[in-house]
Amino acid sequence: MNSLDEFFDSPDSLIYGVGNSGREDDGLGWAFIDRLEEHPPRAALRRTYQLNLEDADLISRYARVLFVDATKDPAVESFAVSRPAPVLDFSFTSHAMSVPTILATAVQCFERIPDACLLAIRGYRWELRQGMTPAAERNLERALSLLTSRAARSPHRG
After folding, report:
1. Which residues 6+ apart lie within 8 Å of 157 measured at CB?
2. 11-28: per-residue pLDDT in tens?
């Protein structure tokens, strides 16, 4: 796959927003899904508070998965797209797992792994409060603008 277009333009794709809209910028993953729902792509859209063991089963049923989550990483200026490799992370708890651990679990338990990318959108505040910071909103808009305009230019768009 040469671009993210297939993540938006295919019914066998999942766009999975991770976060908590009640913790300020931690809601970026959900906000991404909210905005996509205004003009839904062909991909399935879902939200979750955090990744859990059951998500390995969910993602194993799709050809492609785009995880969308907030990041505190100061090296990420606005947003970043990466291709996480499946790696079992033994530091996980029963309450939250990393994307690489979910991918590795899908391989180990279901012998199937989707083509996966992680869209990390830069956030700044994580307090128990509704709404995102203005800077996080701008980063969300930048990510949406770039990614959805690329998908709209896809020749397979219907």
Report:
1. 9, 151
2. 999 999 999 999 999 999
Establish how many alpha carbons lie within 13 A of residue 25's alpha carbon, considering only the half-sphere containing its beta carbon. 20
Residue 134 parent element (H or E):
helix 134-152
Residues 16, 92, 24, 49, CA torsion sign: positive
Find tokens 């995880």 and name the residue.
67
What residues contact 153, with CB distance under 8 A and at least 6 apart?
Answer: 5
84-131 pLDDT, tens digit per residue, is 999 988 665 555 899 999 999 999 999 999 999 999 999 999 999 999
What the block records as the tokens of 37 is 């729902």
Q: Which of 117, 119, 96 is nearest to 50 (CA)?
A: 96
**CA atoms of 107 and 84, how far apart (whole Å):** 14
Cα distance between residue 121 and residue 39, in whole Å: 20
